[in-house]
Specification:
2 strands, single chain, mainly alpha, extended
Length: 209
């Protein structure tokens, strides 16, 4: 069986060989470093108006591949003007900084391994590394040993609400289902995420305040 990175096989899929990946990888890392070094030169908040970026893009998909130099030039010309620079030192909104130097390098490993952490079997190292790392975090925060953590994205809100619902022992939803549950009330602060009311009403059939 031919290697997935065999030049003949790559030519059939449009992928690149490892030497090309190495060359472009160095070029892109150099570009990233230059961007981070000069991030203070950009306005923190993008100054484009709705539709500006779309109007600058071609109406049809390209028919031929472009060089990396052309791609990076397009990023400067088309993408950068429409970016809100979350890494900028003056950016104070939404969320904290999540793309430090180590995390950028870690993303390269994540993309290389292409791990999907659905089950232990799909990637044992990913599952167990996550458990150990979160155990370290629990220890650093001084939380009790009885707590167990998992990494979540926006689904964490749903899981927290479901756990709160199950803590109401009188409902017994996991055993009896939701047919006769009736309405309940969830209180959230004015700083809650925008999609929480929709999530509460559609997924949990509760009211919110």
């Amino acid at each position: 069986m031919r290697s997935l990175l065999d030049p003949v096989e790559l030519s059939k899929t449009g992928d690149m060989d490892t030497e090309t990946l190495r060359r472009y990888g160095h070029q892109i890392v150099d570009w990233i470093v230059g961007y981070l070094d000069g991030i203070g030169d950009y306005p923190v908040l993008s100054r484009v108006t709705p539709g500006d970026v779309q109007r600058r893009l071609p109406g049809q998909a390209p028919q031929r591949p472009e060089t990396m130099d052309a791609i990076l030039a397009d990023i400067h010309r088309l993408v950068i003007p429409g970016i809100t620079h979350w890494n900028a030192g003056s950016f104070m909104g939404y969320f904290g900084l999540t793309s430090s130097g180590p995390s950028i390098l870690a993303e390269m490993f994540d993309a290389t391994f292409n791990v999907t952490r659905m089950l232990w079997r799909t990637s044992p190292a990913a599952t167990e590394l996550e458990q150990v790392t979160l155990r370290w975090l629990r220890q650093m925060l001084g939380l009790p040993d009885s707590l167990f953590g998992m990494l979540h994205h926006n689904s964490a809100i749903l899981h927290a609400l479901v756990a709160a619902r199950e803590a109401l022992g009188s409902l017994q939803i996991s055993r009896l289902g939701m047919a006769d549950v009736g309405r309940s009330l969830v209180c959230v602060s004015m700083h809650r995420k925008r999609h929480m009311p929709r999530l509460i009403k559609r997924r949990l059939c509760w009211d919110w305040a």
